[in-house]
Amino acid sequence: MGNRFRTTSKLLRIGLAAGRSTPGDRLRWWGLFGAAAAVAFVVLATVATLATYDGRETRAQARGPVVDLGRDAALLYRQGGDSVGGRPVSLVFVRPLTAGAPVPAGVTRWPKPGEVLLSPELVRTGSGEGILTRYGRFAGTITTDGLVTPSERIAYVRVGDGAPRNDRRWLPVSAFGSNGGATGEMVDQPAVSSPLLALWALAGLPALALTVVAARVGSRTRDRRGGLLQALGGTWRHRMIVNTGEAAVPAVLGTLTALVPYAVASVHSTRLAPTGYVLDHHDVRAAWPMAAASAVVSLLVVLGIVVGTHRIHRDGTSTRPASFSSRVPAWRLTLCGVGVALVLTSQYMPRRAQLFVFTSGTVVMWAFLSSVVALLTRHLGSWLAESGRRKGHAGRLIGGRWTHAHPGVIVRLALAMVIGIGIVAQMQVWTSRLGVHSQAAVATHQRIKDTVIEVTPSSMTAAQTGRLRSALPAGAVLLSRTFHDPGPPREPWVTVTGTCRDLRVLRVECHGGATAPTGGNAQVEEMRRWWGGFEFVPAPPAGVKTDGTQSLVVVTPAAGQLAAVKQAAFTLPNPSVQVEALGGNWLGSSRSRLPNWIQLFGITGILFVLVAGAVSAAAEFVRIRHALAPLSVLTGRRRVFRSVASWHLTVPLLISTVVTGAVTAWHSVFFIALVKEGSVSWTVLAAGIGACAAVSLAVGFLGARAAAREAERWRPAAD
Questions:
Q1: How far apart are CA 401 and CA 652, in angstroms?
Q2: Cα dihedral sign for 350, 353, 357, 358?
């Protein structure tokens, strides 16, 4: 036992010493440091996401209403919606029936009739839109224990005693502490698998790619050392210890560095740009045990990749390293095929599983597509070498043989470009996934802004309608929209009611009981786009029925009066449930905010990809400058450096770019066909391909330049 411990300790010291003295050690040290930090960052982000979901559900449960259909209800409760700055706001209208009416978490006491409690985020973002007076008199803020997140926008509005008890939209409540999933932001909260899937597809895969690239920097020396250990009788365990010792210091320091932002987020609530979401530090702090364990796991994953990417022959017949530079393993090609198969078969899966299967296949496909490219370039290398031999082209001959003998080099260089193009394309496609209604809402807002406003009350008397009319901005027109559905065989239709004076403002001729639109009014045209064909009826708008078939429509002479209309509607004795510009509920939907999260994860992944590409390119410059330098003595020309670098680096990378562009285009079109929405921006895709082509040219040029400079200083040595 003592000898085994001493052997382990000695091998570990050998590995630590090797990490400090290996050629290109600083590059690999920083590469492993960045890779460990990237993997740990994604893992800790996963922990924070799980902790946030758990905390949100706990706080939502504490404020959820307990509906009591009996006679013990002490409170009438009703939910509504609004928006501030294009972001949704949750409204809760309450009418206490007893002096001891229960209060939810975050509320110490109910305000007086006509007063309102607002969340701090709503006060911060809505001050410019009159939020302090929109729903009534401002009476204070909701504490954080009553908010699912510090960035939640929610308001408790105390209505007057005139709220009818027989309105079905008012729920009788006896207590709070259940059914939290139906309040505030929890109404449209996606499953936790959705953000985690996006996180790992857009940021996790690039982090793992960075780890693979960093692990293979300076691999030739480590492969030779592994072969030597095997020749001396060492087993896989001995090689593992040496390789672990070599990578331990940068990996540990990188993992510890990733804990710094997590520690900051556990002390101060952090706003995540560009989403605007505030990460609650209480949730992050509560998950520290899980975070520490996950950081250890991420460290083991990095060390496992370092050990796993260092392979030699297992049969004991040769000490030659069996690294990825000598061949393209068949299992990599098989996994790429499995990824493509998952993408193709996702359309035949159940609807709920389609996106998961498609995303999983995408991750696998992008992870191993570079291996397919390497196989193609290896065959290309053979063809180039033969062509160079026949025509006496030294640069093509040498570059082709190197490409054939070292496909792993092309894999590491192409990996960053392959994943980078994939991420950019997916970000663009997901950003375009607004859906038909959201796209129509955006187009409507561009044409008429917020000059047509829908007011949807639970019910309204004729007196309340008159009060609303008197509170509207000067020049505003009040109409009533009614949906008629007599049932089969007759088709439903819509009527819009208004006084003749109001209809004439909309360029609708009104004579007695007949109307005739003259056309030319943009607001009327937008109404028809959303409601289909409808008829104008000349009559003053009366009350609104409780059956949900009627609503009010306000048309303002100029844009920018939405806040004034909202204040007029929400300060009525029985406030409106929803006041939105035409199509505005689609503008503020959760789907319209999805691109912000895609950008957050995608930009993080692109950052990791850029680091991986830089590390891989720098490592190749170190290798190629030593290998090409002696050619200056044999040829006497500097042109050979540019020729070899072009055929060995630029040409294979350009082929990788073309293949990746074709696969990306197919993948994006297939995704749009699967979800039946979105569009492909060929301009963005062309820009990504063009950028990668420029990088391919730059890598060849810089590699040749590095070799030429090394040739000036090169002297024969016994290496």
A1: 12
A2: positive
